[in-house]
Amino acid sequence: MICDRTLDAGSYVLHAMDDDEAAQYAAHVASCPDCTAAVADMQLVADTLPMAAPQLAPPPALKGRIMAVVEAEAQLLRAAGPEADRPPAPSPARRRRLWGLGDALRVRPLAAVGVACALLAAGLVGGAVLTGGGGDAVVRTVQASAPDGATARVELTDDGQAELVFDRMPQAPVGRVYQVWLKREGGDPQPTHTLFTVREDGRARVTVDESVEGIDQLLVTAEPGGGSQRPTRAPVVAADLS
Amino acid sequence: MPRRPTADTGLAALADEDLMQLVRRGDSAAFEVIYERHSSAAYSLAYRMTGARGQAEDVVQEAFLSLWRSGARYDRARGSVRTWVLGIVHNRAIDSLRRAGVHDRRRAATDDDSIAERMEAPDRTDAEAARRGEAREVRRALLTLPAEQSRVIELAYFGGFTHSEIATMLGSPIGTIKGRMRLGLEKMRVQLGDAVEAPSA
Fold first, then answer.
1. Residue A122 above 70 pLDDT?
2. Last residue of a domain, one of A52, A69, A87
3. Are A31 and A142 in a shared domain?
4. What number is the average pLDDT over the span B167-190?
5. Is residue B35 included in any domain, yes or no?
6. What is the pLDDT of residue A194?
7. 3-state SS class at A162
8. Which residues of A touch B164 (CB under 8 A)?
């Protein structure tokens, strides 16, 4: 006698169950050889269905946007060092859905990248990861030059930390991220690891990952994804700190 | 726009499964090759499901970033990288459609090949040409099904509707809808024969 719940196998692999039904059926499949075999059979066919969609080329700009995020996170991962290569700790959280391909959904980011992602979601990357929440009192605020319509200021604490605050700042061009540079009098701009993006509304708060003590000028340029060793473009933001 | 042409890195010669080993270690150039290979299929599926460019782009972006951040979850024993990528895209698109509600999904469930075919990507490699041949077979297998079976499969897989929603929409009992899905997939399996036994990498 074949299990009558094999009837559900088609609906299951097509993702036509709601979350609760899918979870219940997945639990049943785990202990039912008939349903396991039926799901495996149906899954092979379901896996071919994407090919039935008319094939289109994705817009080139989409790749630029994705690679900008990936490059910025790869840079953070490198900065995090060998720690980042450790396998991630198993996450106790289980995704609500248990599809055939459910494993792909149980996202367990590499430790360092996980932090980066959270920050990216908030609209900033970089320095904040390394310096943490400080909480020192702001002793001085410097207005910075910024693109038309945008405002930028630098908040300085007495121990040499700087935080950039943006409003209505335009998005970095496709494939690029903003990078902070520090310049001493008479010297070339030195790169920092502070890479960031701004939110849709152009707001961002960015902690610079290096001390600005003795620094003459703080600059921001739009650089390719992972940042640059030398500026490749003219600064869009400049603040005189001296 | 890639800063490093991928052909120059030697990565282009690696199989997907080997590239995923590198992606797992945070290699962005390896990720870029994976993106180049599978973004068309991913975007095509997302566009077919959502019927809107912006939404399709969001789905593809979420899916590939999730792949980048959770590459460790890829298990080659469970299928090709392509199948894994498209599985993530399908799940993301369903989430997006179900958030949008039933009204918007009716539009997605009606095909608009006329617009889509004009944007069709050219074949650049033999692998792409071979895939196009497979795609024709899958479409044919879907077309040769009785209409009542292909319709429920399309509403579910591309439209993101649940079997209960489809039952209401078509005025049939849920058991009937489930039966049509199952029967339709079984027939496709026979029609596709070896193609589904050995999924191409």
1. no
2. A52
3. no
4. 95
5. yes
6. 82
7. strand
8. 18
How is residue B22 written in tokens? 């590198």
Q: Which domain holds residue A14?
A: 4-52
Query: Do residues B1 and B97 both lie within one domain?
Result: yes
Taking an 8 Å cut-off on Cβ atoms, the answer to whether B178 and A87 are in contact is: no
Report chain A residues whose CB lies below 8 A from the CB of B86. 47, 50
The pairing of beta strand A138-144 with beta strand A237-240: unpaired
CA distance linking residue A163 with residue A166, whole number of Å: 10
Domain edge (last residue) among B78, B110, B142: B110
Residues contacting residue B190 through CB under 8 Å, at least 6 positions apart: none
**Where a domain ends, among B41, B75, B110?**
B110
> Does residue A157 sit in helix, strand or coil?
strand
Degrees to nearest 5, angle at CA A105 with A122 and A5:
145
- What is the arithmetic mean of pLDDT over A78-104? 44
Segment (H or E) for A167: strand A162-167
A33 and A77 together in one domain: no
Give the closest of A48, A56, A63 to B196, CB-based: A48
Q: Reply yes or no on whether the pLDDT at B194 is more than 70.
A: no
Q: What's the pLDDT band for A108 if we cut at 50, 70, 90?
A: very low
Q: Which residue of A has its CA nearest to B73?
A: A104
How many structural domains comprise chain A?
2
Lowest mean pLDDT of A43-57, A137-151, A173-187, B185-199, name the range.
B185-199
CB contact under 8 Å between A7 and B61, yes or no, is no
pLDDT at B195: 63
Q: Which of B48, B156, B162 sits opposite A18 (nearest CB)?
A: B162
Which residue, A15, A36, A52, sits at the end of a domain?
A: A52
Structure tokens at A134: 């400080």
Say how many C-beta atoms besides its own lie within 10 A of residue B124's C-beta. Answer: 10
Smallest CA-to-CA distance from B138 within B120, B125, B150 is with B150
Hey, is the C-beta of B126 within 8 angstroms of any chain A C-beta? Answer: no
Question: What is this structure's pTM?
Answer: 0.61
Is residue A138 within 8 Å of A165, Cβ to Cβ?
no
Range of the domain at B63: 1-110
Rg of chain A over all Cα atoms, to the nearest angstrom: 25
Tokens of A111: 């430790």
Residues B103 and B133 in one domain: no
Number of folded domains in chain B?
A: 2
Show residues of chain B in contact with A70, CB under 8 Å.
28, 31-32, 65, 68
CB of A80 closer than 8 Å to CB of A112: yes
**Among B60, B90, B120, whose Cβ lies nearest the Cβ of A54?**
B120
Tell whether B10 and B75 lie within a shared domain.
yes
Cβ contact, residue pair A56, B83, below 8 Å: no
